[in-house]
From TrEMBL:
This is Class I SAM-dependent methyltransferase. GO terms for molecular function: methyltransferase activity. The keyword Transferase applies. It comes from Arthrobacter echini. Keywords: Methyltransferase, Transferase. It comes from the Bacteria. One of its GO terms (biological process) is methylation. Signal peptide: none annotated. Residues 1-22 have a biased composition (Polar residues). Residues 1-24 are annotated as: Disordered.
């Protein structure tokens, strides 16, 4: 549970802060892949790593990865714990900085084109996430993106919701091949908006069940490798009418993205 200590100026609570190098590689690969256009079209791209945790490694990695898309991108790591901010300062450099704050995004009026918050909101109550979603969305640049996600300790299983100023767009699941028995193994890593909704009658439950059925239906392809079986699984889901927003190029990475309306809470 988060430690319920609050800064008078900052919105949020100090979380456990667990982090590991390369933990967020899957979402970063998505940001530099199908979402790279957001950085390319921005005048002066500002990106926030919100709640980077006890060590700033994920913010440093994000900075390095995004610089392959735009060499002028600026990354700001925001943490509510001033001790963590002070510890990160030695790693600051041109284009990468750290500051204390929370969901209010203390950016002196500047609007980020991307805000990434991973393993942050899952530590809050189910009655809290929507208010924080709205607060961050209101501060995005036009066409900006807020990514609220969760992953396991070393980034093998990840899931994230993508939101624009108008609201949620999609849910992405990204799994490392060989680390799951069924796709629904990702259930324990669903974002806060969905993790308690994986029950009969909810859309996310129906979606994960459909993924599992398609996975079992593609079992004959297992001898050709997990990647081939996963691609067939995703293709079967699309054929069944699920509104998938990506294709084989992403599926081959162990990733699948579905429109939010197909999984949103009832």
């Amino acid at each position: 549970m988060p430690l319920r200590q609050r800064s008078p100026q900052s919105v949020g609570s100090i979380t456990r802060g667990t982090t590991n190098p390369n933990r967020l590689r899957r979402v970063d690969r998505w940001l530099t892949g199908p979402q790279r256009y957001r950085l390319r079209r921005a005048g002066k791209p500002l990106v926030v790593d919100l709640g980077y945790g006890a060590a700033p490694v994920t913010a440093v990695e994000l900075f390095s990865r995004l610089r392959t898309v735009r060499d002028d991108v600026e990354v700001v790591g925001i943490e509510i714990d001033p001790v963590r901010v002070a510890a990160a300062e030695p790693l600051a450099r041109p284009g990468l900085s750290f500051r204390q704050g929370g969901f209010e995004l203390p950016l002196e009026g500047r609007r980020p084109v991307v805000v990434r918050a991973f393993n942050v909101l899952r530590q809050y109550g189910e009655d809290e996430y929507e208010a924080h979603w709205e607060q961050v969305r209101e501060r995005l640049a036009p066409g900006g993106l807020f990514v609220d996600g969760t992953c396991d300790e070393i980034g093998r299983r990840s899931a994230w919701v993508a939101l624009e100023t108008t609201g949620p767009l999609s849910l992405t699941v990204s799994l490392r091949f060989g680390t799951f028995t069924r796709p629904s193994d990702v259930a324990e890593r669903l974002p806060k908006a969905l993790i308690h909704r994986n029950v009969a009658g909810e859309r996310i439950h129906a979606y994960l069940q459909a993924l599992d059925r398609a996975w079992l239906g593609a079992a004959a392809l297992a001898s050709f490798g997990t990647q081939q079986r996963w691609v067939a699984t995703c293709a079967a889901l699309r054929a069944d009418g699920w509104p998938l927003l990506d294709g084989a190029a992403r599926w081959r990475l162990g990733e699948i993205t579905v429109a939010w309306d197909a999984v949103r809470p009832r």
